[in-house]
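Problem 12. The chain below contains 284 residues. Write out its predicted structure in token notation.
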Amino acid sequence: MILLTACEQKPVSNFEFEIPTGEAPAEIAFKNTSENADTYYWTFGDGYSSTDENPTHKYNFSGTYNVTLSSYKDGKEAISTKSFTLREAAKRIVEIETEFGIMKAELFNFTPLHRDNFIKLAEEGYYDGTLFHRVMQGFMIQGGDPDSKNATPDQQLSMGGPGYTIPAEIVQGAYHYKGALAAASNGNPEKASAGSQFYIVQGTPLQQQQLEQYERQKGIKYAPAQVEYYVNVGGTPILDMEYTVFGQIIDGLHLIDQIAAVPTNPQNNNRPLKDIKVTVRVVK
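Solution.
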């Protein structure tokens, strides 16, 4: 009888995991149960990978994921793949009302600090009577400055807030599509967000070559569906991975175009010549 030595034995790849709630976002710990292996390579099914033996990975979006573990020893490889599905958790919904109509936005569960802060301020009436104080056609509309309430026509805005910032929650895949609801920032190195000021993306449709340029600049890879949205609907990918996107307009997208088209004063930070007052309500 010929016995295989340890170095001749082939590795066996296997792993286990549990999904706490079955809903996204979910942080999943993977337990490596491979045998006769000393190096590993994981692909998590969402564009991310790891060489940790027992990694933990956060899934921000609902969907079906195929997780693959490649286990290696002495040049030999074994592969195991397992699949799971995360359903979409209930989302909080807000309405942003102006004289142009009502925009309805969903808030993302994978940016809980921004979601909860926006809900808190809305329920307190913090935003009611504030203005869309900065409007740039083809780019975005910005609001949430408490100093804009009852501001004089020549008053410069964009500096007001509740006196705190919010740690960045920048998530790959939450991009600046048209209708994206994102937090303003003052350009600090940590990319922390302003406590109350937000903007809604208008943007423009892009060419695929432009997106490829942004991919190279930012070190990201847009999925086919993301490219399709940017090309057919539009957005401002130059802002991707720089500011926290914490929601998306799901109804009233055309109202962004109407607001963005109003006359503004370029010498006063593109403030609209006529005040556009805002009311924000939590509806779900």
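Discussion. Helices lie at 112-123, 208-218, 224-232, 253-260. Students who got a different answer should revisit the alignment rule from Section 12.3.
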